[in-house]
Amino acid sequence: MFKLLQYLLILILLHISLEAYESEDKLKTVIVGKVAKYISWRKRSEDSFVITVLNNKYGTLFDEVYFDKSIKSKPVVIRYIDNIANLGDTDILYIAELEELSLDEVLDISKNKNILTVSDMRGFAQKGGTLQLYFVGQKLKLKMNIDVLQDEGFHIERTLLKIVEVVEEEE
Amino acid sequence: MKLKITLLSSLLFSLVLSAEEDIYKKSMEDILSMESEIKVNLGSRDGARNYLHSNTPIDVITYKQIDNSGLTSLTDVLRYFVAGFNAPETSVADGTDHVRAFTLRGMSPDQVLVLVNGKRVHTSALLHVNGTIGRGSSHVDLDTIALRSIERIEIMRDGASAQYGSDAISGVINIILKGMGHKSSTAVQYGKRSSGDGEKIYADAFVSTPLKYDGFVNLTMEAVGVDSTQRVGPDNRDNAPSIQTRVGQAKSKNYKMVVNADILNKNSLNIYSNAMLNYRDSEASAFSREDTNLSKPLYSNGFLPIINANILDYTFVVGAKGKLSGGTTWDLSNSYGANYFHYYVKDSMNYTLGAASPTSFDNGSLNFIQNTTNLDFRKKTSSLNFAGGLEFRYENYSIQAGDEESYTSNGSTTTVGGSQGFAGFTPENEVDESRTSVALYIDSNIELSEKLKLEILARYEEYSDFGESTNAKLALSYRAIPELLLRVSGSTGFRAPSLAQANYSQSSSFVDDNNTLVSQGTFTVEHGLAKELGATDLKSERSKNFSMGGVYQPSKQLSFMLDIFYIEVNDRIMLTNELDVSDAMRTKYNVNVQQARYFTNAASTQTSGVDFKIDYRHILSNNSKLDFNLWFNYTDNTINYSDASTDNELEQVRVEEGQPSNSLRFLTNYELSRVNIALNLSRFGEYSQMRENKVYKFDAAYTADLDISYKITRATKVAIGGTNIFDEIPNKWDGLSGDYYGENGIKPYSRYSPFGYSGAYYYLRASMEF
Question: How many CB pairs (< 8 A) connect A and B?
């Protein structure tokens, strides 16, 4: 009987999935690339998929997650900037923190450049950002501003729209 | 042997695999269904952080655990989930039957600070003055808070007066209310005890309304109706009345409402507010007794005085926070809270009024008001996080007298006056006292190196009544290897004498160890009688805390937490013994009591022990989740009296042995798509109570709680379950033969029993999200 229980325990242990409590920061960095797969950019950089992180607060997480990864069949390049003036060509702008400028000023600079702006700041989507990350309980949730996405010329797959909460920009 | 090796290696293999997993390979849906780390706000003004990375021991209970428990009161949630948390259920203990006292690590209830969303909660107006756990203390009434409004409960097992001020000696409980994004829901639950009594009807509704920019207004309403249980023993008194004393849980109706709101404007100015309202109508009995008015009795078969507590409690918090241009965040808030505890006694009489006595009485009320204003600042740099702030607090405590019939002796010096069961507060007891306090505090988190972090906290506080107190805390954490965090902290703390301890006075009658009715009075230290008996002005309690331990997390699924602690409290405030009052004193001070007591800085206590926790999550290939949480607590309390007026073995036994020195909680949860099974096992260690100069020991006991729920649809769920499902009952007084307290007496069980004595409770629940 005891041996049977031991075998059962082994069976259970061997069926352990690889999922566990992940850090919020890691989930946020990972989801960016996942969401990108459901979005079509109007203008796209030729030979790489660029994610620019403004005021990085995630250490080396972006580098670790996107090392040797590709999005839209292009290798991912991570760039870190402390000043939005150095934005340059990018597919995604991840706004980790605001320091000198307000959110409005940062979004103004990235406006009409077909850049997917992402942040976990509260109210980000309704304030003119395109993709907002937030947690309810311990689950990651997404909000997208459909008006801004359309204005910026993105095409969003229906599958993604079923998962995210769609919000409109508040005037 | 081979089997064991295979078992061990498969376990290690799975753990290693999990550590190396690349979650980027998962689908987006899978990532969105993953659970993130649990973050806490408690313990630092530095913002939320993973509770396993904290430099002081912190534990968390999530709303999911609460939802899957069938528990309907916050006190019970903590009792069944936290090793080292104790909350006995009393009966025939006056006000204590209506506001359950609770302790952390066997210390006094008023040495636990309770916060809601990080803001101090006011205490109950009730002062426990009977011989229960928590005697002599006023504490936060945890059952004023609606369970369904809670997102998580954070419990810090460390002193934190240097951070939060008075009371944070044995620990801090921070209740985080649900924020944005939670689904609206409603639930009903019906249950009763295995013996058929103690019926409980519970209903709640949680409604969340989103506002612009991720603002929200959440409204929670909760109603709980509980019928009494009856676990009385035989009444062998001479001329025992035919009506039985009610021994068991109190009968109560409890209505709670919580509003939590957050409003953001486009410039990120954040206005927040929460309000909590609770009204409780609770009834418990005193001992049944005979009508002494033999010529014209009001009650021919004796009577059972019912003590009825009407408790109104509310809190209103409003605040604003934002960010200055240099990156400094600010937070200005005001919190106003009040607790009104109104005593009524019915089905009773005042012996001294004879046949003219009313049977129902208004016995007066206890009232406590607290207003706290805080202004906090926080600034982050790459290696230093600095926070500081100011706090201004106003407190008011008052006692209002009851009807004259509830307290009068009608001129009698031989018969105990006042309403039987609980005498009303007299005009002499009336008091209306206020005080203010101002505090200034700083909190620095310094990253000395990538592995070494130091937190320094200091707080200066000045009270208008008892003076000033300066406290500090140092906490150091060292990440020796990525999987291992070592931590050590030391702090000083204090607890200001509560206004209730400084101003409470009342007279009552009780049955002593010799089964004799005795009249007794509690007096303020200012009262002439107390002064003549030796009372001096109250000082604050002073504490020193030390804790050391660490967290070993070999994988994200598994963590081990081990912490040892030592807490020394000096000048602990306690009630004196019942001191004899001479005839001369009675005449001199015009009091009609045989015994008197008052509060005094009576003793020093030493509390030491260890907490050991294992948290493990196991995910099976069918995507079901199995969670194990094991928590063991060992606590040793000792007391040394410095005041002869309090030196007695009864109190010593209560402090040192009255609560389990060891406790174990083993929480398991299995979740498979539509089904959730929660099975929680608890071990309550042995405890002792002194009666008639003898120490009686009560055995350790195990209880099991089970909750099985099934999702009928995505939004609708039904559940069946029970607490203490195997109907564990504490053993009775072994060899005690008293009529009131005894193996074959009216109260056969100790009032210290950490899991009550009403037995198993079974329930059905239905809930719906919308």
Answer: 150
**Residues in B touching A23 (Cβ below 8 Å):** 36-37, 50
Q: Exposed/middle/buried for B171, CB within 10 Å: 0-12, 13-18, 19+?
A: buried
Which positions 164-183 of B are in contact with A (Cβ < 8 Å)? Answer: 179-182
Does the beta carbon of B266 lie under 8 angstroms from any beta carbon of chain A? Answer: yes
Shortest Cα distance, chain A CAs vs residue B8, angstroms? 9
Domain that holds residue B508: 2-769
Q: Which residue out of A10, A14, A15, A17 would a mutagenesis test of the B interface target, given it has the greatest number of B Cβ atoms within 10 Å?
A: A17
Residues A121, B319: Cα–Cα separation, whole Å: 20
Chain B environment of A15 (Cβ under 8 Å): 620-621
The token pair that represents B169 in the structure block? 């000696």
Is domain A23-167 given the CATH code 3.40.50.2300 in the classification?
yes
CA angle B683, B688, B691 (to 5 degrees): 150
Is B557 close to A20, i.e. CB distance below 8 A?
Answer: yes
Full pLDDT tens readout for chain A, 171 residues: 556 555 545 544 444 444 457 899 999 999 999 999 999 998 776 789 999 999 999 999 999 999 999 998 899 999 999 999 898 889 999 999 887 778 888 999 999 999 999 999 999 999 999 999 999 989 999 999 999 999 999 999 999 999 999 987 665
Residues of chain B positioned with their CB less than 8 A from the CB of A104? 266
Complex ipTM > 0.85: yes
Q: Across the interface, do B213 and A139 touch by the CB < 8 Å criterion?
A: no
Q: For residue B277, give the CATH number of its domain.
A: 2.40.170.20
Q: Touching check for B590 and chain A: CB below 8 Å?
A: no
Cα(A104)–Cα(A107) distance, integer angstroms: 5
User: In terms of C-beta distances under 8 Å and separation of at least 24 residues, what long-range contacts does B467-470 make, across chains too?
Assistant: B467/B540, B469/B161, B469/B166, B469/B494, B469/B496, B469/B540
Residues of chain A numbered 8-67 and touching chain B (CB < 8 Å): 9-10, 12-24, 26-27, 30-31, 33-35, 37-38, 65-66
Q: What is the pLDDT of residues B613-625, one digit of tens each?
A: 999 988 887 778 9
Kind and range of the H or E element at B81? Answer: helix B74-81
Q: Looking at chain A from residue 94 to 113, which residues have their Cβ under 8 Å from any Cβ of chain B?
A: 99, 102-104
Per domain, the residue ranges of chain A are: 23-167
What would the 3-class secondary structure string for chain A be?
Answer: CHHHHHHHHHHHHHCCCCCCCECHHHHHHHHHHHHHCCEECCCCCCCCEEEEEECCCCCCHHHHHHCCCEECCEEEEEEEECCHHHCCCCCEEEECCCCCCCHHHHHHHHCCCCCEEEECCCCCCCCCCCEEEEEECCEEEEEEEHHHHHHCCCEECHHHHHHCEEECCCC
Tokens of B339: 């607790």
